[in-house]
Amino acid sequence: MAGLTRRGALLLGGAVLGGIATKELVSRLPVLDGAGVIEPSDAATVLNDASLLSETPIHRHVVMDGDPGEALVSRLRAELKEAASARRPVSIGAARHSMGGQAIPRGGHAVTFRNAMVEPDTAAGTYRVHAGARWSEVIAALDPIGYSPKVMQSNHDFGVAATFSVNAHGWPAPLGPMGSTVRAVTMVMADGALVRASRDENADLFSAAMGGYGLIGLLTELEVEMVPNVRLEPTFAEMPGVAFGPAFAAAVKDGAVNMAYGRLNVDRSRFFEDVLMITYRPAADQGDLPAAGTSGFISNASRNIFRAQLGRERIKRWRWWTETDLGPRIAGGAVTRNTLLNEPVVTLDDRDPTRTDILHEYFVPPERFADFLAACREIIPGSYQELLNVTLRWLEPDRDSLLAFAPGPRIAAVMLFSQEMSARAEADMARMTELLIDRVIALGGAYYLPYRLHARLDQFSASYARARDFIGVKRAADPGLTLRNALWDKYMGTL
């Protein structure tokens, strides 16, 4: 096991550190023409997302690259003008790893960005980045100059603007969502105006676009904070689940902790009874840092172990032992911050055509975390969904986004279920989801919006107290409602 990193050792146990999904986009689309535009054909043009349960007819799919200059802006304006004249919606995306059509405009114009432009400014501690750049490309640009994204999703496959648009978070600590590290954005509004927004300039648009699911404007570039890359060493602490809330809160407030997360035991015999907490602090040796790598073959090997858990409680118990006992003992030395972040989600992809991976995420006040565990023990085992993983992260309060899911400190619980692809399983998942959301709301928490649209309208309103403020900004900025998606259609458009 020479060269095995500590994250690699955890991946050997089937660890999943989160992200929006674990299955790639599937689209039945004609081939791109030379201009990167997919025109309608006699056959239906259809887009799907990572759930594989959101197959949606669209009018046209447009793939755009190039730097975020006048040529790109002109193309976006043309799409908006044509769509508005025909009263068709427009939505923009990158990896399309959402799970409920949040980036798919039914009957409309779907724009996909592909661009890797990243321009660091070491004097300002920021980087300018094209909206469609992936986090892997950001790391590739920052790592050679000794810097790292301040906050990003915990896998590198996703688009930077998409992360801002869902206000996703990661496991750097103690920090808030990624939007808290964005200084400014530039976007094309529904009427074609090019607008720069920040906390000081067009602040209402900035707060609405952060976690606004592309409903405010079409982002073209962002100015984002970066931090020095460092070599980190982990510590591992296994504890009862009921002790995790205060222990995690204390750990992330330790000024030396740079990154942190937790893992719950999902074995039915010890369901949610045990937690492993992993914290990373700077190593004593901060000499020349190696280039950012990944866990490589370990990540790929771990897929088989991870998938073997399905319906096998013995494998779940064995995986927990590898994470809590074997992994810490066999793991190698320190690893850089960028290497920890530089992981693809696809290595644990589900390749069973009869099943799909579905994520839930809940944001719980730390002092109510034990109550959250009790609620999950009451609800989840009564379903026939297969829970494969739960990752726990810390979030500082979000003071910016109108659709904030963490108005105070929160523990984020990211749950990965394997769901049978059937109407029966979808109905069961919807029932279980409603029950979990009700309990989380009663604890003062919220659920996350990028996943299956199973929440009731009253649950959406209870979880997102400033939704009506968001809708007000949206309608003022886009009175024709050109920027729409399934999230708007089901919830916000009805309020």
Given the helix and strand composition, which structural class is it? alpha+beta
Number of continuous helical runs: 14
Shape: globular
Low-confidence stretches: 1-43
- Tell me the Rg in angstroms: 22 Å
| Helix-residue proportion | 25-40%
**CATH fold node name of the domain at 6-19 and 230-461:** Alpha-Beta Plaits
Largest β sheet strand count, sense and barrel closure: 8 strands, antiparallel
Termini separation (Å)? 56 Å
Q: Could you report the average pLDDT, rounded to the nearest whole number?
A: 88
Give me a quick take on this structure.
By secondary structure, the chain is α+β, with helices and mostly antiparallel strands. The chain has helices spanning 6-12, 70-85, 135-142, 160-166, 203-209, 244-252, 297-307, 313-330, 337-341, 369-379, 423-442, 457-463, 467-477, 486-490, and strands spanning 27-28, 37-38, 46-47, 56-57, 60-64, 90-93, 109-113, 118-121, 126-130, 147-149, 182-188, 194-198, 218-228, 231-240, 259-264, 274-282, 335-336, 355-364, 386-395, 410-420, 446-447.
Protein described:
With 495 residues, the chain is α+β, with helices and mostly antiparallel strands. The protein has a domain at 6-19 and 230-461: 2-Layer Sandwich (Alpha-Beta Plaits), CATH 3.30.70.2520. Helices cover 29% and strands 24% of the residues. It contains 14 helices and 21 strands. It has helices at residues 6-12, 70-85, 135-142, 160-166, 203-209, 244-252, 297-307, 313-330, 337-341, 369-379, 423-442, 457-463, 467-477, 486-490, and strands at 27-28, 37-38, 46-47, 56-57, 60-64, 90-93, 109-113, 118-121, 126-130, 147-149, 182-188, 194-198, 218-228, 231-240, 259-264, 274-282, 335-336, 355-364, 386-395, 410-420, 446-447. An 8-stranded antiparallel β-sheet has the order 17-14-16-15-19-20-18-21, with helices on both faces. Strand 11 and strand 12 (194-198) form a beta hairpin. Helix 1 (6-12) packs parallel to helix 7, helix 1 (6-12) runs antiparallel to helix 8 (313-330) and helix 10 (369-379) packs antiparallel against helix 11. The radius of gyration is 22 Å and the shape is globular.
